[in-house]
């Protein structure tokens, strides 16, 4: 199995962490969506990372779709995203919110990185970051400081996605130490675990 993408991409890294948690051996090609356009587009015509090339040769794209396959193939009776019911809905909702945070942080970054400085629209950046912070505040409010995990009493995809999301939000200037201390503490604890550490960018 071949994972295409760099781990500084939160979308790629959540797939790498999921593979590690499920104990699936894989190789990784550290390609970037912008730096290695031609090679990335050969695997994903949309030109985005991650892509996952299965041993059969089939290529999957988009972290949600890749993780859905990994849950189905390797999750057994306790996949990181529960198979049904209220627990499944809860994990999917929180995970979607955090994926949205990542997208908003990246929209803000792209505005600064991909447009000429005279065309950068600061209010758009501020609005994206305000949306990201608002969503993180909502997640902070869900955290029970004594619980080892974000949602259920076990590791789920909400925890995996929280680790990559909090890291990106902090890198983009959201002071999680001050504003989301529960999320910061939870994700720091998780990030120290070997299954997470191995993909640290
Ligand atoms: N929804 C996608 C988002 C993937 C994504 O936006 N990847 C970024 C890197 S962090 C990328 O490749 N951007 C290049 C581009 O959009 O051209 C997923 O979950 O995999």
From TrEMBL:
Pfam families named among the record's database cross-references: GST_C_2, GST_N_3
Taxonomic superkingdom: Bacteria
GO biological-process terms attached to the record: glutathione metabolic process; L-phenylalanine catabolic process
A molecular function (GO) term: glutathione transferase activity
Keywords of this entry: Transferase
Residue ranges of every copy of the GST N-terminal domain listed in the record: 1-78
Protein name: Glutathione S-transferase family protein
Organism expressing this protein natively: Bradyrhizobium rifense
Taxonomic lineage of the native organism: Bacteria, Pseudomonadati, Pseudomonadota, Alphaproteobacteria, Hyphomicrobiales
């Amino acid at each position: 199995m071949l994972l295409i993408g760099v781990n500084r991409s939160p979308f790629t890294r959540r797939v790498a962490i999921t593979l590690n948690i499920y104990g699936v051996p894989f190789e990784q090609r550290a390609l970037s969506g912008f730096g290695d356009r031609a090679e990335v587009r050969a695997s994903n015509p949309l030109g985005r990372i991650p892509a996952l090339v299965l041993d059969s040769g089939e290529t999957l794209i988009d972290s949600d779709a890749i993780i859905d396959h990994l849950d189905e193939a390797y999750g057994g009776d306790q996949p990181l995203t529960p198979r049904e019911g209220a627990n499944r809905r809860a994990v999917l909702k929180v995970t979607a919110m955090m994926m949205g945070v990542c997208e908003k942080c990246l929209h803000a970054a792209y505005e600064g990185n991909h447009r000429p400085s005279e065309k950068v629209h600061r209010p758009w950046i501020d609005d994206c970051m305000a949306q990201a912070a608002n969503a993180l505040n909502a997640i902070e409010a869900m955290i029970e400081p004594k619980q080892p995990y974000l949602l259920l009493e076990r590791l789920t995809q909400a925890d995996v996605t929280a680790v990559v999301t909090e890291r990106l939000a902090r890198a983009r200037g959201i002071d999680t130490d001050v504003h989301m201390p529960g999320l910061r503490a939870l994700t720091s604890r998780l990030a120290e675990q070997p299954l997470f550490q191995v993909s640290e960018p």
